[in-house]
Amino acid sequence: MTMPMSGRQRASPTSLGLYSLLASVTVSVAERVHLSPGRGCNEIVSRAACCMFLDGRSDTPYGGQECVPTSDGAFFNDENEVVCEPACFVGGTCGDKGDDVADLSARAGLCLGERKPVAAGCFNIMDRETCCEYRDAREDPTFSGQDCVPSKPDVAFVEAYGNVCEPQCWVDGSCNEDQDIASKAGTCQAPAPAPSTTSADAATPTKEQENLNTTRTSPTTKTMLRRAYTNQNLGEQYLEQINATVPAGGDVSFFIIASSNGAYMTWPDQLHATLKGMGYSVSVPEPTYPGWIAHPRKKPICLDDADYADLATPRFGMTGWASWGFAFDDQEDCDDEGYRPLLEYNISCINAAVCNPRWSYPGVPYLSAAKLAETFKGMTFVVLSNWINDARMVTRRDCIQSDDNEDIDSTPITSYTISKLVNKIHEKDPKVVVLVLARYPGARETDVEPYSLKMVARLNAGVKAAVQHLPNTYFVDVPFPLQVNMFQTLKPGHPNCRGDKLFVNAIIETLYDKQVLSRGLAMAGQECLSRTNCEDLPYACCHKSALCYVKDGKCSQYTPGLQ
Prior knowledge:
19% of the residues lie in helices and 15% in strands. It is built from 13 helices and 27 strands. The strands form eleven sheets. Strands 14, 15, 16, 19, 21 and 24 form a six-stranded parallel β-sheet that branches. Strands 17-18-20 form a three-stranded antiparallel β-sheet, with no helix packed on it. Strands 1-10 form a two-stranded parallel sheet.
């Protein structure tokens, strides 16, 4: 029997969105986006718009819950005419509705193309026919959004409990490794297709459609307007919001500081091309001192290589360097043996793979944090992916003087050096947005090494906790799919073209979520990360999948690249 688990839905807050005026739009769970931080489903005054969001109140049980509309003519709160509430509130598993209302589920309506949410979970439904009307709406992302599946007549999925309804993933075994119950599954009768909207219908907005441009907020509240960059079958490709720093079509300047992932991967180049393709005027200034490169030294040839092969994208891709190679202004505090104090350690002043001087860059012993900060003045954003090697470097006695290097936790060192560089950048220009890119997992040949996930998650969580309190600084999570070809054979250990794509889309998603960019990419959740049926995917899921990309307006297969 599936029981509630401790996991939470992905929290990637997006500004409040009001969608294009299309009465017949079909919204799937994957296409929902979060309301702005602190904003609740109850603020939405349109039933149609309600179907497109997740609650944005992260400090309450409502956070991440699907927004549920009322049926036509009904209200969840008659006095305030509330037509939208979070699923758990409607289902009675969270919040205080007052003694006068025992259950709000009878007032709930349906979103087109969706089943009713059951906040208590599919397994609590005791009728097979009713089971087919619902989808699981528990907070746990393992089950949330899964269609409820009935058992065959006179058969229970779990005989001891008499369960006749379970979420799809539990039935097919993708989230239930202990039992084989697929043979017990019954079927639901397919619902009749929703009537299409004619051009005449669309030309005359109803009062419901007009309310898509209205929210129960003050005129000064930052809101997002989602524009209809649509394809009838693929949905919206882009999102737009007002009151972001850079308007759609505006000027964007950026720079990337990386270790070898900037030298052997194409994500800086893909980021440049993607921003241009979204309509921005993009510039990537050249530093005035040595060490930078305008193109990768080696790279896979990706399917979209022609989009950026001729684009010069200056970046620092310092092979083998750790984060401390970018954190200091000079080397005056290095002792005669070539070490400097850093926190409780003495750390090498040699910036090279495993701190070996034979592999250092001629003429570039270090990069001055002060000079970097001066270069970044006036830029829109800077991406830091310069700490990927830290955990490996601290285990080397050549890099850190210690009696037992194996016991050294690199997280405090990384947190200190990145914070030091960020503060230096903001001393010169506090308006520059700094993005700290997550460390990617280790590789087992071309797939993710599962044994690296726990360690990488710990490192990312530690660095994220340290930098998220810095002003104008955001951590960029980049989840990788498992059992998928994600790493190069050309430069083993480095993500291939698919990883490049995930980097870029995660960066753009963060810039949009934090209201830096007015135009962003429509982006589905992690359930789309490893989808392979590209030709059938809407744009939002196509953008999220590591194995698909949008080419000539269509979602197509995206390969690891020629290596």
